[in-house]
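Quarterly update, task 2.4: S-adenosylmethionine-bound model.
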Amino acid sequence: MAKSIKEILKDIQAGTITRHGLARLIAIATREEFKPVFDESARVCKRHFGNRVYVRGIIEFSNYCRKGCFYCGINKANKTVPRYRLSLEEILAAAAFMKKQGVLTVVLQSGEDPGNDGLVIEAVKRIKNDLNMAVTLSVGERDSKAYREFIKAGADRYLLRIETTDPDLFKKFHPDDDLEYRTKCLYVLKKLGYEVGTGVMVGLPGQSPDSIAGDLLFFRALNPAMVGIGPFLPHQDTPLRNCSNRDIFPTLKTLALIRLLLPMSNLPATTAMGTIDPLGRQQALRIGANVIMPNFTPSAYRENYKLYDNKICVSEEYGKCAACTAGIALAAGKRVVRSKGYSKLTFKGNR
Ligand code: SAM
């Protein structure tokens, strides 16, 4: 006889959960039936984080990219998007503004362009030395030498989504990438001492509950400090332009299960969640997310960092995202805190 939801939840707690059990939960069709899982993930989040929400300000400092990922609006094959790279001064000004607004962690994100590495290293050094902020990098795949240089410059965290752990899907959407290499990057980053973040997109064409169950087991094995997930959303100038995805529920189910499998990991309520559903981030914070990432990219560049259509916060007045963040947390019954938000898994008390 098939196990009940309660029994599967017990298996998660006991560490005996199977891929099949996770896929069964992911396949649940209604919020009503999934409610016991959401209730439990909300409880686990509260136990570890109370009602605190950590804030990480993102600066999308360059959209140059050497990769051709089929889902991504800034992939190298998209010739319609003007390419940009912020200067060191522009990055520092955005970080300083962020700090003034009470945000103590900077996420520097870009397309994958090793040509930016000198700029990244300078920016990390200056943000650490001049502003004493925590720095997360999200600039893609490199060799261990480059990752070592970034950490030597002072980077604290590295965010590299695995995107999907399903080998067939990965191959299908990444004409010039290799799942094994991307996986290796994550383990190298971890070994070097970064707080590592990874994640996937939910709702990719052809993705099954079993694919997502595989992703969940991958997260459990890697045990990252942070898992950032979001719905796949189509972009008009990519090969996946005609693949629609309108429902946040599969993303929320995945988020809840990550919270149960990795109770202390940092889980952001992402911009893509707020794009697929105007109240997506609030819902995510209610069922297990504990991080929010307002956009501090200077307004003039935001239009050119559209990873998918209708991305929110693109035409927002500069600086508005921080205030908006506090409101989103409040609406979810939580409050943003002024903290660098180091991971409970890796915090050594000396930063
Ligand atoms: N280049 C870096 C890397 O490879 O990790 C970081 C930048 S990349 C543009 C940031 C993230 O955007 C990706 O990890 C991917 O999950 C997400 N993304 C890209 N296109 C997307 C889409 N169409 N829908 C949802 N998320 C998307």
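Highlight for this quarter: Residues 199 and 229 are 5 Å apart (CA to CA).
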